[in-house]
Amino acid sequence: MRLVCFLSVCITLMLSGCSFKADRPAPVESLNGPSTPSISKGSITGSRYVVKKGDTLYSIAWGSNKDFVDIAKSNRLPKPYTIYPGQVLSLSSKKYVTNSQSVKKTANSTPFPSVKYAKSNEKQSVSVNSSSAASQNEGSKKQLDPNSKPAYSVTSNQQDVNRVVHKPAELPKKVSRWSWPVKGQVIGTFSAKEQGNKGIKIAGNRGDAIKAAASGRVVYAGSALRGYGNLVIIKHSDDYLSAYAHADKILVKEKQAVNVGQTVATMGSTGTNRVMLHFEIRYHGKSVNPVKFLPKQ
């Protein structure tokens, strides 16, 4: 009788243990805890992407080597481009016509629509000349948790798409001046090959100042993009973005305005095996050779 009771207790404990393990969530690999996604360089290659907590439109665009404006247009995302965990974004390339003007097709270029800020006390609207984009957006909404919060919260009170917004500080249409982000020897040059270096690598000492190569606004400051370490991305205009990777410390915050020559981070070796700065410039989401924009040393 005692043996039967003992076996019953053992079986009960074993079943409880199995049930407990089955209910536990699967471990999530992350650089900054389980809530922060980790995106590899060019790792987003599909036509769709499911937003994770901590994502921004700019980090997704950077990881997929696409223009953030194109992604916003494809998914009818109004400024300030708030996205939500579980939201499905289309990353497929689409052609647009804006201001009743045709966008010419070229062999090596991507059409880039103009996006204007709404004036103060003016309702903001976003139009997309594609019924498929609208239907896909509806499909994305159906998959969202009605109680979900923005992947990256940009406002405390999120309103509907047709909301009254105030005009933020205008970014220049053109970058008037570029400057070297650090002083040091270039130890890695740009390559246009698919698996090539999409920027330049500059040697330096830990703690050296990393400065903004041009005036603009910080649109990303974090370490979720695997392979970049601590990364700062600055938007200079609707055309140009620049990135500063492997920083030791980030000294700016997202949405912060910066001037050319302003210190945004310090040099380090996060995400790599030596102290250096990996510096990129992107035009309409495509990597370009930074040396062609920077003054001669």
TrEMBL record:
GO terms for cellular component: cell division site; cell outer membrane. The keyword Transferase does not apply. Residues 100-165 are annotated as: Disordered. GO terms for molecular function: metalloendopeptidase activity. Residues 123-138 have a biased composition (Low complexity). Keywords: Signal. Residues 47-91 form the LysM domain. Residues 100-112 have a biased composition (Polar residues). The keyword Cytoplasm does not apply. Residues 1-21 form the signal peptide. Belongs to the E.coli NlpD/Haemophilus LppB family. This is Peptidase M23B.
